User: Fold these one by one.
Assistant:
Number 1:
Amino acid sequence: MSSHALEKFPRVRLAQLPTPFTQITAPELGLKLYLKRDDLTGNGLSGNKARKLEFLIADARAQNCATLVTCGAVQSNCARALAVAAAQTHLESYLILTGAVPAEDDGNLLISRLAGAEIEFLTSTDPAERDALLARRTADLAASGRRPYVVPFGGSSEVGALGYVQAAFEMATQLGPDAARFRHIVTPMASGGTYAGLYLGFALAGLPIRPIGAFVCGSATEWVPTLLDLIHGLARLLGVVVAADESDIRLIDARGAGYDQPTPAELDFIARFVRATGVLLDPVYSGKALYALWRYLECGALDDPADVIFLHTGGSFGIFPHRRGLSAALAGLEPHAADVGAAGCLPDAPVAAQAERPATVALHAATAKAASAVHRASRRATPHRSPELRPAQTISIASP
């Protein structure tokens, strides 16, 4: 199937595409890696959410909606991107942001306000309370004639995930014959739409590249069914059937001390990486995910670092609320400072989180019997199994 399959879906062009590939080298960290720079999709509308919003806003317009509504954390990249995109497309935006109300506007929150978003805070972070409030406010907006369109958490609906089906085809075109050399693309993950779009997009493009989700919240056990639901729902939207099951899901635990709680080691890694490459990482998503990937690469959990792409999903505005921690990390950047994270191979985590981590370095993957089973996603350790797509006729994605 070609990228023409996406032409039947309405799309509003928002992102600056295609985004470039960059090979970065950070000798101090022993890191050499290819980046797909989706942090460069725009300015205020930067990061991976821009691709999703192209399809979501087009869908909202097709339904004659006038107000975009979403929820997220106080420093939500999706909420900020939605607010900016709404301003660009002359729609209203209503944001429900969870967590402690900040003393002052900063980072993504400040930009959301500048873009004219109407913001309501919910101090509870309980998803059930958040969803209940979202439902009530959506009903209120509808009753007042504001014609709401709900963008789910992270923009991760089947419609939003179309953005990363398109991204997979974009990468296939950019890489050309070199695409076959890559085995994995690692993406930061907090809602799953990017992962689902990449999974199905690369399969449809006939490439052996498979996503690995570096999750910054939740658990492997929770993520597996969520991702499978998104993948199968997206396949139905595109009119194909995909034979994906639990054993196809590849995950890296990038939570560290918890969501939006960067550890000193993570902040130190971010500071060193930016100094070595000039590429900004945020302490909530891209920085945590790349730090976790670096630790796994250091321990040999992936067979060959040269066959890995890291998807930089943006989030640079999230740097500013963590200015104190990053300033402390910068103070420690002396010529003979100790290596980052030299104490071990697994990403840092509080003791309570260690219970569900493997005793040895491994990627989380699921089996049919246990969604939280763990094994290495290595070319030598596990034979590669590509998904089989079945639209009108069977299209088998050959194993390399």
Number 2:
Amino acid sequence: MRLCPHLTLLTLSAALTLSCDPDPTPQPSGHTGLETDTGSDSDTATVDERCEPDEDGDGWCPPEDCDDTTIWVNPSWAENPDDGIDNNCDGRIDEVFQRVFVLEWDQATNDTGLVQVDSLGDLRGTFSTGQFFTPTTATLDHDLRHFITFDPSNLALVRYDQSGSLETVASIDPEFDWPDDQGEPPVIFGDLVAHPDGYYLMAAADRLLRFETDGSWTVEARWTCTGDDHEFCATALGADPIYGTVMIFGFFGGSAVWTPDDGLEILQISDPEAPGPQFMQTHYKPFDTWFSLGIYYDEEMERENYGIFRFNRTTRENVLLGAWSDPNFQPNSFSIEEASGDFYFAVNSPRGAAGAWHNQVWRMSAQGGTTAQLFATRAESDQNYFVAAGVHYTHK
């Protein structure tokens, strides 16, 4: 049976039984998580709202400003790749955007390879992992060099690098006996994030799973996904690397926020009878906000469409930033190039022979206005397709 590109959404759907925001700009200091609703139509703070003390007077304060003794270091600066300083406070020193990579999965053998493409769309290398696993996303690990994904075939959290080397960090025993007060989740996979406190979190339908680097795991939070008391069904999440705030978004819409100190707060209960966007994956852009890939009903086109949504901190709503431009192409995963703000996608399109896939990489501008193909395999296959996209930097 063919695994659909938007694996998470369709599997979750089958498992369940149920009775314009401003252009992205760096956030000034003072954002310690979510903001209260001020009634404003903007979620960008003004100079007067910035925090103190600001020792260097550059408008940014710790912890966002990673060196408050000089105006030449803060999140609004572009990185200088030659000075040995983290100019933009993103945790990397002298980073240079090198290339986009996508994970290519062979469903006949379960072998997975990495295809690397530069910003001009030129192929820069292919690597085989040499192991059998089914990747779903590509999320940066704590060291900002490796990536993590969840393998639903083996119920394992897997860590890998750009050369294809991978290791299992943690796994769930398929025979695990879930406690009676928890029950078994509808599905055991979802979007992953490396939390700044050193562990990993996964959105798994009706619960937030926490994985430790020693291989252990626990249920961090629970909510109701099925039945009459439905709240929302989580499929995507992203974490603010400064404050540790985690936004969680659902299959029928709906959202929640989780923090280590305050736990879970459901912000919006989803309605399966009148669903909102079906969120597939979320990334947090440092000093800005959360961006998500989702499926929504396009009133103008009178059909379902894919789009990138931007979370407004003030209204606590996801606002469509950019709509997908071609219904014949299906984005399966995305990543953000932080310097430009552009979005890169692993894309598949059914073309040619029935069931064959045409694998591609696409790019959307940071403002969401332009979407275009960057790279294509120029080959059709009914076994291989791109399942996840990531952005690789060289840095010290």
Number 3:
Amino acid sequence: MRIKLARSLGCRFPGLSLPQRQIRGRPRHEHSEPVPQHDPPPAAGAPSAPGRQRARVHPRPVTVVAWLHTWLTTQPQLRDSTRRSYQGHLRCHLRPRLRGMLLADLDAARLQQVFTGMLEAGMTEATVRRVYCTLRSALNAAVREQLITDNPARYLQVPAGHRPHAVIWTRRRVRDWQRTGDRPPVAVWTTSQTRRFLKTTARHRLHLAYRLIALRGLRRGEACGLRWADLDLDAGLAYITRQIQHIGGKLTDCPLKTPASRRAEALDRTTIAALREHRRAQHHDARARGIILSGYVFTAPDGGPLSPEHLTRTFNTLAANAGLPPVRLHDLRHGAATLMLLAGADLKAIADQLGHSSIVLTADTYLSVAIELGLAVAAATARLILRHGRRPPGGGHTRRRSPPPRAIVATRVSQLISCPA
């Protein structure tokens, strides 16, 4: 302890004279090697010590735009949709504002002006945040390549860009939309509105695709990529393993969005019966027209894979013809989470059915405030005084009701839709 204190005092106060530790009768400094006054230069090709990295000296200065292009072309692990997003950020936002600027001259003050200008130009906070994340990733790679010594993007003040929460199309919101034409960024149909849509589209060839999205929360690419080989109708399960996307102007069978998206969806009896009938009708139509089916559950008129864009355009037309307030096709997925909650599922079960890796995303994004839950608050409050009826004899704790299995949740969700308003 005394030696450590002496060392610390000697470092903090260089002029302080401290006794040397004796080693076999001689001061310790006589045994130690002489300390060089300056660090020796690193060997050729050896990396610099952490915290002392120096930028490489290039014969020609590197511009920010040139590095962004280089960085983007050397990222083979990016998903195609992510690559297209980065390309759009570079083409529409970064290249016009950073053209001609050298990478070595980039600093936090200039970048702050760039992103402040984006916000002043009317860009949403979420878009600005995504562009910022793209630039920050590219500059982090520049630091690793020793093109710059530090990433100036990490000092910027950019809004977090919180995603909008879903709201219910209540009667008041519907009247406001009909009067002003303004619609919420993310809106969810009520149970009766979802029931109305599925009833009016019951005879449409894509009705089952919309039913799976509305009741089980499939993404549109997952619905288009669903194959008959992925269905086990006897067990009542649909295995989500692939998705269809537009890549390079053509439909491509792609991996799912995340590893957690690979899941098994429970199907209710009504949906199972409808899928069996859909398969019989699909094969009958293919034999009558002499076309070869591609093996997908939902196909284009020629029997090939169905385009997600076609699924979206058809949905918008059908929703407008039904006289319903506007929602996006992806908003049916929001509503599916609410329907599962009303059916008695907990957050973990809903996150598993939606393919989320965490219930945080489920609670923050997809669980809109359902009207039916709001009306049940008074009844739940009254039940607080009746909890003793569920207490075990001689115990002071109430029994916790176990969450219903997935098959029961799927059946209850189906019943919510099939019950009359």
